[in-house]
Amino acid sequence: MNSYCTSKMSIIGLALAMAFPAAASESGYADTKTLDEISVTATREARATAEVPQAIAVIGKEALAEKKMFNMKEALQEIPGVLVDSKNGGFDARLIIRGAGLKAAYGIREIMVLRDGVPLSDPDSFTRLDFVDTQDIERIEVAKGPGNLFAAGSAGGAIQVFSKSVFDTSANSAKIGFGSDGTENYHLRYGVVGERHALAVTATHRKMDNDWRSWNTFDTTQTSLKHGWMLTEHDVLESELSYAEANMQLPGAMDEALFKRFERTGEQKDTSEAWKNSGRYSKVWFFNSRLEMERGDFTFKPRFYYNTWYHYHPVTGAINETRDWVYNLGADLELNWRHTDGTLVAGVTARSEEVPDSAKYQYRDVLTTPAGRILSTLSDAKGALASTSTSSSMLNAVYVQESWRPAPRWIIDAGLRYDVIRMEDETNEITRYDYASGKYVAGDGLTRTEKTFRLPAPKLAVSYKLSQEINLFGMVAQAGQIPSSGEISSNPALDAPVSRNVEFGVKGRSRDWQFDASVYSTKVEDEIVQINTGGTTEYANAGKTDKKGLELSGSVNVGNGFDIGGHYAWSDFTYDSFSEPVRVGASVVNQDRAGNALPFVPRHQYGVFVGWKSADGWRARLAGLNWGEYWLDNANTEKYRGWDWVTNLSVGYERDQHSVMLNIDNLFDKHYAFEVKKDTSGKVTYTAASPRQLMLTYRYAFR
Question: Which residues have CB under 8 Å from 602's CB, separation 6+?
Answer without folding.
Answer: 83, 571, 627, 628, 629, 630, 642
